[in-house]
Amino acid sequence: MTRKNLIAGNWKMNNTIGEAVVLAQEISYDFYRDWLELVDVAVCPPYVDLKPVVNVFEFDHLKVGVGAQNVYWEPKGAYTGEISIEMLREIGCEWCIVGHSERRGLFGETNEDVNKKVKALVDGGIKPIVCVGESLAVRDEGSYLEYVCAQVRAAFAGVDEAAAKSAVVAYEPIWAIGTGRTATPEQAEEVCAAVRATLAEIYADKTADAMRVLYGGSMNEGNAALLLAEPDIDGGLIGGASLKAKSFIEIVKAAM
Ligand code: 13P
Questions:
Q1: Which tens digit of pLDDT belongs to each residue from 204-220?
Q2: What pLDDT, on the 0 to 100 scale, is given for residue 144?
C-alpha cells in the first residue's frame, strides 16, 4: 500500500496573528498547487491564529489544511480556558494535534485524556494527529517500544475502525524534540513499524496499512528525505523548521 505523505507544521506557541498571516502567505506564495496531488500538507498555529491562517489559504484557493494543537472533549459548558471541537470545525480546522509530549509533560495530559480527545475528535469530524514518544530515560533503559505501543493502545482504546482511519500517529521521541538531535532513520523506522504493528493488533491489517505514521523531532530540510524514505514513515510533524517558509517548503518537496 502506498500511503500519501503528510507534512504538518506544529507552530507551538509562536507567531502573533500578524506573524502567522505573514508566514502562511509566504508558504502560499512558494507553493505549487500540484504538489497537493502527491503530499498532504497542514499547519497547526496557536488557537487565535487559526481563523486568520484559514483565511489566507482560502483566499489563495490553496488546500493546505489547518489544525489546532489541542482541544477539549466536552461539547460546551463551564470549562474555563478550553476550546471545543465545534468551535474548531466552525473556523475550518481539519486537524488537531493530541497528546503532544509538551502537553503531557508540562500540562499533565494523561493517556486517558488523549483517548477522550481522540474519540471526541473522530466523532466530530476532525482528524487527530496523535503524538506518542519516549523520554531519553525510557530509551536508555530499553523499553521504548513497549512504552510507545502502550501509548498507541491507550489512545485508540474504544475507537472504532472506521473512525480510526481518519487519525494519524506521530512518533516524536522527546529527546529529539527541539534538541537538534534527530532520531536516525533506522531508529525512527523501528518505532514507526512497531506503531503500525500495534495498530494491526487493534484493527484489520488493511486499516493499519492505510493509516499514516509520522516522525517528529528536529526534522528539517537536511534530514527529511532520508527519514521519509523509510517504509513506515509517512510524513513529518515539524516544529522549529516549520516556522520558516523556505525550510517548510523544502520538507514538503522532500515528501513528494
Ligand atoms: P522540533 O521539530 O522543533 O524538534 O519539534 C518537533 C515537534 O515537537 C513537533 O510537534
A1: 999 999 999 999 999 99
A2: 98
Domain coverage including residue 147 = 5-254
For the segment 7-18, the average pLDDT, to the nearest whole number, is: 98
Pocket flag, ligand 1, residue 247 (CB < 6 Å): no
Q: Which residue of the set 100, 109, 134, 189 is catalytic?
A: 100
Of the candidates 94, 102, 109, 172, the residue annotated as catalytic is 172
Ligand 1: which of 177, 243, 248 to mutate, most ligand atoms within 8 Å of CB? 177
The model's confidence at residue 180, banded by pLDDT at 50, 70 and 90, is confident
**What contacts 8, CB < 8 A, 6 or more positions away?**
41, 42, 43, 44, 65, 67, 95, 97, 129, 170, 214, 235, 236, 237, 238, 242
Which atom of ligand 1 is the closest one to the Cα of 220? 2
What's the total number of domains in the chain? 1
CATH number of the domain encompassing residue 229:
3.20.20.70
Q: Is the CB of 127 under 6 A from ligand 1?
A: no
Q: Check whether 23 has a pLDDT greater than 70.
A: yes
Instruction: Tell me the pLDDT band of 2, cut-offs 50, 70 and 90.
Output: confident
Residue 172 known to be catalytic: yes
Nearest-atom index, ligand 1, CA of 177: 4
Q: Is the pLDDT reported for residue 1 higher than 90?
A: no
